[in-house]
Amino acid sequence: EWGKPLNGVNILITAGPTREKVDPVRFFTNHSTGKMGYAIADVAAKLGANVILISGPTTLVPPENVKTIQIESAQDMYERVLEHYPHTDVVIKSAAVADYRPIQSFDQKMKKQPDDLQMKMERTTDILKELGKLKKHQLLVGFAAETNNVEEYAKRKLETKNLDLIVANNVSSVGAGFGTDTNIVTIYERDLRKIELPIMSKYEVAKRLLDKVQVLLKGAE
Ligand code: PMT
């Protein structure tokens, strides 16, 4: 049933949340379950690509024929992505990477204090932005999770991170974003053409996205 149009293409996909450690029993994270990224990895492998999936903690079973690497923090993800970037043709960053982490983390459990607690946070590395700066032959696909001004913010990320495509989802719409089996996305290209997709399964979104990737790869040959 599956043709192999992505035969020989090296695709790096990130999925899931990151965990930013506070102490051995606590961390900051977000609602990503990895469903979107795992669907893309699964479909890409079925289309013949060599797939590396770099995943934050999820409860999902790694797809067949995909090399899955488990990580925890944004920094871990950054290091593993950089390691594989030089021999990657396409990067798809569906992971929900933490933008901040605690400046200090503790090796022993923090004890409760009588007063309020203030925790200082620092920025993590914007992985996609770094990839945009280092880009040579790679095709870079980002995601934008927004709750408002979706189009404006997505287009801005496409520009500032030097991407080739961005997949925007309004994570406050029912049936879209975190945790659901469906998503509602608009895919923006560099020339700002857009493909506005209705609600569909994350697998179907993955197929539509990889169709577009294939067209761009053909154009670059
Ligand atoms: O995992 P699911 O439950 O299926 O949910 C899917 C999803 C909502 C997580 C997915 O569809 C999605 O929108 N993923 C991107 C989430 C996100 O972090 O978006 P953002 O707009 O904050 O980031 C923009 C892009 O920069 C993303 O491609 C992100 O991976 C990347 N980024 C962000 C921060 C950072 N420090 N490094 C990055 O590379």
From TrEMBL:
It catalyses: (R)-4'-phosphopantothenate + L-cysteine + CTP = N-[(R)-4-phosphopantothenoyl]-L-cysteine + CMP + diphosphate + H(+); N-[(R)-4-phosphopantothenoyl]-L-cysteine + H(+) = (R)-4'-phosphopantetheine + CO2. Keywords: Decarboxylase, Flavoprotein, FMN, Ligase, Lyase, Magnesium, Metal-binding, Multifunctional enzyme. In the C-terminal section; belongs to the PPC synthetase family. The chain holds residues 183 to 403 of 403 of the full protein. It comes from Metabacillus rhizolycopersici. Signal peptide: none annotated. Catalyzes two steps in the biosynthesis of coenzyme A. In the first step cysteine is conjugated to 4'-phosphopantothenate to form 4-phosphopantothenoylcysteine, in the latter compound is decarboxylated to form 4'-phosphopantotheine. Catalyzes two sequential steps in the biosynthesis of coenzyme A. In the first step cysteine is conjugated to 4'-phosphopantothenate to form 4-phosphopantothenoylcysteine. In the second step the latter compound is decarboxylated to form 4'-phosphopantotheine. Residues 11-221 are annotated as: Phosphopantothenate--cysteine ligase. The keyword Kinase does not apply. This is Coenzyme A biosynthesis bifunctional protein CoaBC. Binds 1 FMN per subunit. Residues 6-214 form the DNA/pantothenate metabolism flavoprotein C-terminal domain. Its cofactor is FMN; Mg(2+). One of its GO terms (molecular function) is phosphopantothenoylcysteine decarboxylase activity. CTP binds at D99, K109, F143, K157, K161. Pathway: Cofactor biosynthesis; coenzyme A biosynthesis; CoA from (R)-pantothenate: step 2/5; Cofactor biosynthesis; coenzyme A biosynthesis; CoA from (R)-pantothenate: step 3/5. Its EC number is 4.1.1.36, 6.3.2.5.
